[in-house]
């Protein structure tokens, strides 16, 4: 797809091309759009309303899908939400912009300097359809600059999650906290999923499905390995279990530590969606056969929560905090109502253009206090009646025999054990 990008900044275009490379879009700049934008300094303007309107205008003029982003600070002044747009005329130097911002903030009490640094990114189609992605970072605007790095307002913006200003971060760190990058990654995650939906058939438990990954990809041929498999997870506990489980295949494994790209946000509604998104993304980045695991805990008394949100349950940051939160949520729920299951979906994306899925489920109970030292995540709270133990009381081999991941891995090994054979790609023709 050809997409116009409303920017005249070469570094921004280059960065977009790098981040969106897995989508295979052809990104072209439109330099001369500034005159079409409404007055950027108009007060109280909500970018989530304005950016889609302007992007649609540009898409209609050009007849091509068009990407436009704008950023702003949003804060509260006298109880009102105020937007401070970061779009300026070409004449403003960074110095002048900072002065403008400081002037706007003069006299604001510290609690009103709490800010959302927000980027709104819209992809507009000439027919009028729009998609809008928002990236945001919470912070405090300082009275005085702090730090040396970065550009623009980076010296004034203190990121709460990081405990420093953007200007005090390394370039890699700054990327992680940049609302612009966050918005772009949301778009990427969404489109990778979009791309997969039309052809995927969700398989019955333990079977495999085929789908087309890249339009025009070579038709798969059946041929044996040499196998190199990228295990695309950032979770060390999972990685260990996957490595052990895959050992019988004798394949050479690569990990995400071997690469510098970042995985997109997991915005799918199901484990299947997220596993495919992760596998497809990493496969397209590396060209390697890629395995991703999406898994989680479904608690009946919580109507299936945390489910696909298991890694960010209650916004808690560590395994320990998530376990404490789970116990809080289940306070007063009697033992016989504490039923739950762990689900794992493994997706294997083949660079030739299709994907296979394997699913495993283990039923259990959530205890009222942790038991055992092994494993990771919710393991100390997950009791498996058939074994009479929690996952955390099991050795790795024992857990593999009983666990959701172990069961999905067994299906995968079964599918690949007699050498690597690619099924007929029926959906690509
Ligand atoms: O006690 C546990 N024993 C398990 O066997 C297990 N499997 C998954 N989980 C939890 O479920 C979430 C998955 O989220 P998830 O699939 O997005 O993985 P993740 O974000 O940790 O890594 P990645 O693979 O996405 O990089 C994470 O919070 C995991 O702690 C488990 N917890
Ligand atoms: Mg994850």
From TrEMBL:
Gene3D superfamilies: 3.90.950.10. Its EC number is 3.6.1.66. It comes from the Bacteria. Keywords: Hydrolase, Magnesium, Metal-binding, Nucleotide metabolism, Nucleotide-binding. One of its GO terms (molecular function) is metal ion binding. Pfam families: Ham1p_like. The keyword Transmembrane does not apply. It catalyses: ITP + H2O = IMP + diphosphate + H(+); XTP + H2O = XMP + diphosphate + H(+); dITP + H2O = dIMP + diphosphate + H(+). Residues 198-226 are annotated as: Disordered. Residues 213-226 have a biased composition (Low complexity). The keyword Coiled coil does not apply. Mg(2+) binds at residue 294. Coiled coil: none annotated. Transmembrane segments: none annotated. Binds 1 Mg(2+) ion per subunit. GO terms for cellular component: cytosol. Its cofactor is Mg(2+). It is an enzyme of class 3 (hydrolase). The active site is at residue 294. Substrate binds at residues 233-238, 295, 376-379, 399, 404-405. Pyrophosphatase that catalyzes the hydrolysis of nucleoside triphosphates to their monophosphate derivatives, with a high preference for the non-canonical purine nucleotides XTP (xanthosine triphosphate), dITP (deoxyinosine triphosphate) and ITP. Seems to function as a house-cleaning enzyme that removes non-canonical purine nucleotides from the nucleotide pool, thus preventing their incorporation into DNA/RNA and avoiding chromosomal lesions. Belongs to the HAM1 NTPase family. Homodimer. This is dITP/XTP pyrophosphatase. It comes from Calidithermus roseus. The gene is rdgB.
